[in-house]
Fold each of these.
Amino acid sequence: MSKGKFITIEGCEGVGKTTQVDLLKQAFAGREDVLFLREPGGTAISEQIRRIILDVKNEGMSGICEVLLYSASRAQLVEEVIKPALREGKTVICDRFTDSTLAYQGYARGLGADMVETLSDIACGGLKPDLTVFLDLDPVSAFKRKGGADSKDRLEQAGIQFHAKVYEGYKRIAERYPERVACVPAGEGAQRVHELVMQLLKERGAI
Ligand SMILES: Nc1ncnc2c1ncn2[C@@H]1O[C@H](COP(=O)(O)OP(=O)(O)O)[C@@H](O)[C@H]1O
Ligand SMILES: [Mg+2]
């Protein structure tokens, strides 16, 4: 059975994930066998959960509540969209996925990597990305690009120390899963980073 490739794009806030996904959309314009998604979200149910997660009114949300909401949103996306697309042989490119939960909740919020990985396995029914593109840039430089944190996004409001821990979390994930996670230096201009991403996807036979 032909099976499509599952690619995730990861990294701290402002490193350029969405910018790179947009450039990939342009590069693959007209290709019906390439599907673009973003997390949390991507289905009607998952988008509703996304609003709860990001709402600044929910500052009292516990870490475990947060990680369960991310997992719930992901479970729906995997079941409703990702698995059927991969079965059809499509390439699926997702802006954030399980490594975000691992970096943010597992490492930075201190819930522990093992618990978060177990939850991710349950939510994904064992599905793992074939390739994860880690856009590697420290959070101080990344936030400068954005002109500071988004006041409407609870996670972005968490402070630079938190985001430094997220970055450390990503570094540990990259060390732990060197076969799956490829680090792409994200400090140069968007077009140059796009070239690096395209080169990587070709090298890995992902497109
Ligand atoms: N390589 C780059 N160099 C400079 N600025 C960039 C680069 N990539 C993205 N940006 C800008 O940085 C900001 C954050 O980019 P974005 O793609 O939204 O990041 P993310 O999705 O990772 O949070 C945007 O204003 C974007 O235009
Ligand atoms: Mg983004």
Note: The first helix runs from residue 17 to 27.
Amino acid sequence: MLLFLIMTFDVIVIGSGLGGLVAGAKLAKEGKKILLLEQESTPGGYASCFILNDYIIDLGLHAIDGMYERDPKIEIFEDLDVFFNVEFEKIPTGFYRFTNKRKDFIVPDSAEEAITSLTEQFPEEEKGIKKFFKTINTLTKHTHSIPRSKFLQAIVGPFVPILFSSIPQWGGKTAGELFDKYFKNEDLKLALAGTIQYYGDDPYKLSAIIFALALSSRFKAGTHYIKGGSVKLSYSLANFIIEHGGTILFNRRATNIIVKRGRAVGVEYVSTKRKAGKVNRVDAKYIVSNASVPQVVNDLLPEKVNKKFRQQINKADVGHSILNVFLGFKKSLKELGNTSYTTVVNNEGVINLADVSTNHKSDYEKRNFIFVDYSQIDSRLAPSGKSTGVISTVDYLENWKDLSKNEYIEKKKEIAYIFIRRLSELIPDLVQHIEYFYVSTPRTKYEYTLNPQGTLLGFAYTIKQSGMNRLKSKSPIKNLYFSSAWTFPGGGFSSTIWAGWQCAEQLLKKL
Ligand SMILES: Cc1cc2nc3c(=O)[nH]c(=O)nc-3n(C[C@H](O)[C@H](O)[C@H](O)COP(=O)(O)OP(=O)(O)OC[C@H]3O[C@@H](n4cnc5c(N)ncnc54)[C@H](O)[C@@H]3O)c2cc1C
């Protein structure tokens, strides 16, 4: 132990969310000496699961996008041996079922079929639908064509308006403006914005490019799920770090990033298992924080070294959170007649796309929600013959943070009953087959990952905070880097995996 404490590492990674795991795994593979500190007892952050009554609950994966031939994740997963340990299951039931009492139909997960299906539903919008799909494809092509190296970016920069004209055209616009440009029918806009809760809580604040890229990726290759849950991916990466000589300390929370002469040189940490435990210190050439950027500037860095940066971070908008009701069923929901993996349920009172943001702050009785039915695939989350599902709705920490223990328990129960009742309007026999439910609130998410507001995205995907405007991995403090949903390109599995990879590539040039 003494030897461990006087060791200097190449890199200390704080946090084992996907951004931290991927950065750590790549650096370990390239022979760097890695120490990863994780405050929880399992790896993954939101990419994690826990077991309740024989059911596996997946905290933060409903569906993973991409996985097409040239998706950058494929190269990363091959490099880090992920495909040896993790099986991806394609979701076979289309992108999602959209229902709001006025409309009830499947949005398929291929662009061609989606155009046909949407045109059948909204024949008067045929032209706009075709143009919309063309625009999101062009935006994807243009965004992916921007060179990765800063040098090439500087050369290409002046030609962007000519070569990649869709980027300046849509860069300053919101998803709402994108829909308004091509469609008149509000139900069509609402249907296409069905999965908005994974990216933003207000279509008229969410960056058009971010939502276009998200949709386009799903219409290109559909979505996948990890058999056995997202924790399989996290364990695969954590084991890879250990197999490549890295060290992971679970139940250790970083409490300070030590800065000497303007450089990050080490980390202090404590055990989360012991109250008032000893403070340990380890040193490294570089520090990578997968822990949230606000936590780093407000709690981990010395006050005097980062005043300006702290002000900048504390002014930024933090993304929303999600409330989940996890459900375990004695039977497969597929047998009960449900046919969709993802069902987007909009409240009938939501008439215009502009109503969505108000709806997200309305009564839980009326709030739009998404239901994911894992029984539609071989998810391996439930014992044979049984199944699991999860309800998700946009929510905010302020609705939960000041409640006493009893009030908190009671409110969780009350909300679970509301959503179970609302779900049983779609799947009538569901209630009698429920064996358990568990509610995860924004407060649960904050407590588990220490992400401010319990956000799943880091900074909100507003125009000012997305794409090239998003915070970069290299921090203003020398030798301190970020690798998480909070930095470029942003939140979600694909983005945080990419963030981790990019961060490792930058460090490998220096180490
Ligand atoms: C309900 C839900 C559903 C989602 N569904 C999807 C989906 O279907 N598809 C998709 O792509 N994405 C989805 N996401 C988003 C995705 O899960 C996250 O954006 C992504 O996993 C975040 O990864 P991250 O690297 O930023 O780290 P995080 O997951 O935020 O983890 C941070 C880690 O750092 C640790 N940590 C924090 N502070 C310290 C400290 N001081 N010391 C030590 N350790 C510390 C935490 O314990 C945690 O393990 C979902 C998220 C949620 C919550």
Note: The two ends are 26 Å apart (CA to CA).
